[in-house]
Amino acid sequence: MKIKLSLVTTAVVFFMGAQAVDAQKVKDTLIQEEKIDEIVIVAYGSQKRETIVGSNTQVNAKEFADRPITSIGQAIDGASPGVKVSTSTGQPGSSPSIQIRGIGSYGITTSPLYVIDGVIYNGSLSAINTNDIASFNILKDAASTSLYGSAAANGVILITTKTGKKGADALNFSMSTGYVGRSIPEYDRVNAYQYYPLVWEAMRNGRLTSVPASTVADANKYATERLISDVLKNNVFDVDNKLLVVDGVLNPNAKLKYTDLDWQDPLIKTGFRQNYELNYSGGTNKTTYFSSVSYTNEAGYLIKSDFERFTARLKVDSQIKNWLKVGTSISGVSSNGNNSVDGADNNSSYINPYAWTRRIGPIYSPYAHDPDTFATLYDSFGDVIYDSGSARGADAAAGRNVIQETLLNKDISKNYYIISRAYAEVKVDPYLTLSTNVGYDIQNNRRNRYINKVIGDAAPGGAAEIRTFTEQTLTFNQLLNYKRKFGSHNFEFLLGHESYKFIYEYMLGYKQGQVVDGNDELINFVTPTTLTSQTDNYRKESVFSRLNYDYKSKYILSGSYRADGSSRFAKDVRWDYFWSVGAGWRIKGEDFLNDSNTISELKLRGSYGEVGNDRTNSYYMYKSTYALGYNNAQEPGILYDFKADPKVSWETNKQSDVAIDFGFFNNRITGTVEYYNRITNDLLFKVPQPVSAGIPDSEITQNVGTMYNRGFEIGINADVIKNENFTWNLNANASTLKNQVTQLSKGITELIEGTKKVSVGHSVYDYWLRQWYGVDPTDGSPLYLAADSYIGTTAVDIRTVNGTLVTTNHNKAKYDYSGTAIPDLFGSFGTSITYKEWSLSTMFTYQVGGMTYDSNYQTLMSNYPQGGALSTDILNRWTTPGQITDVPALNSATYTSSGAASSRWLIKSDFITFRQATLGYSFKQSVISQYGITALRLLMSGENIWSKTARKGLEPVQSFNGTTTNRYTPARIITIGFNISF
After folding, report:
1. What is the pLDDT of residues 943-980, one digit of tens each?
2. Rounded to an integer, what distance in angstroms lies between the CA atom of residue 895 and that of residue 782?
3. For a designed S-S bond to 947, which of 8, 294, 568, 913 qualifies (C-beta 3.0 to 4.6 A apart)?
4. Dihedral-angle region of residue 822 (phi above 0 means left; psi in -120 to 50 means alpha; beta otherwise)
């Protein structure tokens, strides 16, 4: 077909790696229309999209370039069906956890493999400047991932960095600045006026229960007289302790002596984020280059939590000869910051600011007050004096003050990275290319902690700790690629070899007894408590190949094979073999659809293959080990530490995938519907052993299980309106997931850990809990379904309610499966709109189904608070015979049973989150060109803007297994900025 271009300039450019295709300016010229193929990054190369048979989602830089994100992991959230993201914490510089197509393992990592510019990457995602990334690809099935063999069971994420373009040089500068705040609100809790009567009520009811002979008057008097002296220890009202609560009513004349009772306000503030980016790129016919420097500084909304990063990068590609192309890139990264306490590791720690401020009762001030005037006290330097908690109840951490400790303690990380790549590509003949790639990454981390000598764990001496680790990764591969076309038949054959080396070096020093103030180096401390170091090595050798064939891009076949040898396992089980086959039928290429104006793309594809997971928790899984350092004075000591099974090996995933890709109305509507079945064999479990065997922890890690993950994925993209001045695009994706354990061996029938029980026929994320029944309306007692062994018994704590056998004793409760953390449906949807110079893009993420075990809420629902905070839901407690409620009576004698772990604390995980939005305005060329500016764009962008969950304060996406911790909740970030190009 001939078309005429008259006095127009086409400016369509397709980028992929170092390749670019530019349409040329023509004037009144007749040319032959040619189709420009979309090229997609795949394992160890690139491929035309229409010939891909694997599941490969590509996200280009324009889709995340304007967002105020520190880690590329944040851009993965919502980017593809089948990808579930546990949102990153509010700690600046943190990255989210990611699962692709379900739960790949039980005992080892479920994280995907990351590959940057063709080389495996082990460092932090926050070390990569997102503005240096050209695209990322999410590989989900065996046909896409099998060339990565033993490390690909959990999917692969390929990150491709930016490169220069041939032609005019370009200088780009961007900056943004804005606000950082809390995105998840706190749970609603009762105030001081409500608190005292509630605690009094628990004491009164407890007295009536524990001393049945007591009258109500006696119990009332008992609670009134002991409320402050025996339990809460503190009275913030200006009335006598024994007159504060009488007959359950707060003294109406009581007034607060002081009002500074908010522990969160001194710790939570408005944070600040700023980012600056400068890059320079260009190239000639033979050489292209891209260089960049960037600076990011983000102060979190929690005091003394921040992240500062400086990056510099240079990438050069050169066609030295028509048969030789070489390239190299190097990135240097320096980052440092103040670390907040991680709630996942320190959930109930006294220095966990989220746990403390959430749980402490509303009757304690952080500050010391004059006992007579009630005025806040200050020292001789004018600094406020903090209350050390000598007068607090048992649940209020006497002797500690999280605000003071946060201010006095230090926890600082300093990270340095070098990420380097180099390649050479030799064109042996028109069909055969030999290339080699080498990647060397090094990360050095130093973490300094100072624990003050004034208050807390290290008082009165003080302590300091330094942890350092260095990770070095060296990857070297050689690739032989043969491409040949015979008429309508297209062949591509890849043969490769790869060597991988990883070295981990660690050192820890801890000393106590500070000598002089203001110095937290180890030399300033007297007593060494810990001094240890270790070095670990990991090696992998691999050989792999791939064969792709297509006929007119219509009938497509693909096959791959990889052999891996891993140093993690013993020699006789060290090598394993991974493979895949795939096929596709591009129905659109058939004659009967070739001229269709309705169907612009239609392809059926499927694949099957095996990949592995050798990323275990130990580098020496087959070796029994001993722990050093257990010395007695000068006598050396060694302890038996780990009993190994020499036959232990990697887990293997057998994956099948079938999908249909479609496009309608000249691809105004495009999408994919996909089904996958992923079976994990040889699951690693800690197998219990008899105590008499003398094995450490009485367990051995062995391959003993099988499970599957299967589900549907749907993605759709539609240009609803598309004309010269106005475009409107809608996109959405949705995924389902079913996980089930199908086999356990070596005598294992079940494994119980926390709130979960693993057994055949159930998911590894199914809850195993006491069965909560409700509240007895006759007396407000907590009720559980009674265990079957109590049928026919007549104990006083066994009852029959509405024909159901129940118990008031949690120790006699029935355990059973109680739902799952896995949702029925999850995904994202969004829209992008452009009108002349204006643009707006938004994205929402959502989840339907699944349950969260809300332990944070559980601690706020104590039926006998002794200085601990209470949820406002406690106001719905049982108080009157016949009352129907789901909150038991407050009772100091039965509160243990009321608050026990059970299905009572499960809540729906449904949520919808306004994940991000960006509003932009681009100036017209006619306005800015006179100043030598080629582009100028103003931006406003937001992350974690709004969420709706089943309960205020709930964060249902903080973990894949549905549990909650007192963690640094995600930050809301709103920024404004601009991009300018010359």
Report:
1. 999 999 999 999 999 999 999 999 999 999 999 999 99
2. 9
3. 913
4. beta
